[in-house]
Every structure is written in structure tokens, then in C-alpha cells.
Amino acid sequence: KLKKIESQPYGSQILEAEEFIKKQRSASEGMIWNSAKGTPWVILRPADVIGPMDPTYAWSNLQFWTMFQKNLDISLELPLDAEDRQMSFTFVEDLADAFLLAIQTPAAWDNVYNIALEDTFTLSELCVDIGKELGFEDIEVLYDEDHDELPFTYPSALHGTMDISKAREKLGFVPTAGSDAVEETVQWYLDIFMTDAEERAAMLAQFAEDFLPDDRENDLLRAVAEFLEHNGIEFDLRPEDDDEDEDDDEDEDDYDDEDEDEEDDEDENEDEDEDED
After folding, report:
1. Phi, psi (5° rounding) for residue 160?
2. How far is residue 71's CA from residue 130's CA, in Å, rounded to a whole number?
3. What 8-state DSSP symbol labels residue 114?
């Protein structure tokens, strides 16, 4: 049974919502949308969700570090207590499957289920696996007792790994293999990185903020350009501000041309007036 933790208000609010849902099943009086027996419910508890469309940038931070660590000569230093900490992850497609199973399995209603991969990872194991998918075999993660914060959001909760045996038994839940989940997630981020300039810029901005001092941003742009050009994709190294400056210069040139045209017209009009005189 979970306990409320005052320092984690989001988790405590979720727990309160779960308790409310459970109580209405046995005490439905006054719940106008309920039948006499209350509304059936299923609660799914995922771990950190990985896979396509992750809005947290946690995965992209890890993937970019493995892609550019040699070019940028940046190390990944983690708190010493994270060295052996096993983490559970939930593959987004598994979570979607679990929702369907919950809807379609009435015998499994009125229960709470953990939804996660069977495999667990430490941060260094995850980085090594990401590196292998990208073709890098010598990924090294450093642990330092002087570091007390993680540069990204894994894990978002510190309750340990998840037991999914109940979901297997009652829901018929079968998780994706951990290696397949890592492979699909890496490939999705790689495809987006190479094809979606807007999303690439957003991910790189977050990576630079979390990993790099301001004076290394140009180094990052050069590393990105080298990677993309190696894959046959053109990449403009100029910041957007430079493009705006060029647009401003073009506007000024157009304005100057308009002024010159107006002056020429005035001169022609004056010449015509003199001829008439």
C-alpha cells in the first residue's frame, strides 16, 4: 500500500484520487452517475514512460549525450547512490495495450495494476544500451559522491522497481522485451532528429541547457552539423538571429531603394517643370 509523501504533492494527489475511486464503489450514495453498486474501476500505475512522443526530453538528453560525448568531450557524472539503482520503465505501446486489456476484461475490474517492462536498468546500463543502438561501444558513465542531482528526470520516483505479476495474471498483460523497447525508442528519436528541424531545435536547446555551458553551444552546433551532413542532411550553422538580421538588412536595402526611386521621380518632375517654363 502506498503512503502519502508530503514532499511529493503530485504523487499524494494521485493517491487521494485512487482512494476516492475505490470508496465510491462501496459507498455510491449521492454519486448521481453511479449505479446502486457504484462504478467499476481499474487503476493502472506506469513507471517512467519511454517511447515515441515523450514530452519530458529525459530520453533525448541521454541519447544526445551518447551521440555527441566524443565530439564535445563531455562526461556524464551521476550521484554515487545511482550507480546500482535499478529502475523500471513503461513502454508507451505497452501502456496503450494495458488500457485496452483493462476495458475488455471485466473479471479484472476493481483492481490496481503496475504496468512496466519486465527488464530493469541502471542509468549506466541504459546509456550503454542506447549507445550500442547508435553504434557506440565504449560509453562510460562516471559516478561521483560530490554530485547530488541528476541532469534529467530518470527516475521520477524513488519507490524502486515494479512487480507486474498481477497484471500478467489478471489482465493477460505481456510487456515488450526491454531491448526492443530501447531499440524502438532510439530509432524514433533518431528519425525525428534527422527529419524534424523544429523538434530537433527544441531537444537540442534542452540538452544544451542541462549539459553544456553557454560557451559550448557553437561546439554543439558543429557536432550536429557533422552528424547530419554525414547522413546526407544539410544543416545551417547560423543561429536564427543571424537570419533575422539578414532579413532586417534586406528590408533596409528595400527601403533605401524605395527612397532612391522616390528621389529620382522628384528629379524627373523638377526637370519637366523646368522644360515647361
Report:
1. 90, -165
2. 17
3. E
> 192 near 49, Cβ under 8 Å?
no
Residue with cell 527516475: 155
Which residue type is seen at 39?
Answer: T
Confidence of residue 263 (pLDDT cuts 50, 70, 90): low
The beta-strand segments (E) located in 38-161 are 42-46, 48-50, 76-79, 89-91, 111-115, 141-144
pTM over 0.85: no
What is the grid cell recorded at 163? Answer: 512487480
- Write phi, then psi, for 216 (nearest 5 degrees): -105, 5
Q: Report residue 259 as a C-alpha cell.
A: 527612397
Q: Where are the beta strands (DSSP E) in 21-150?
A: 42-46, 48-50, 76-79, 89-91, 111-115, 141-144
Q: How many residues does the chain have?
A: 277
Neighbours of 46 (CB within 10 A): 18
Average pLDDT, integer, range 103-128: 93
pLDDT of 158 above 90: no
* Residue 44 bridge partners (DSSP): 113
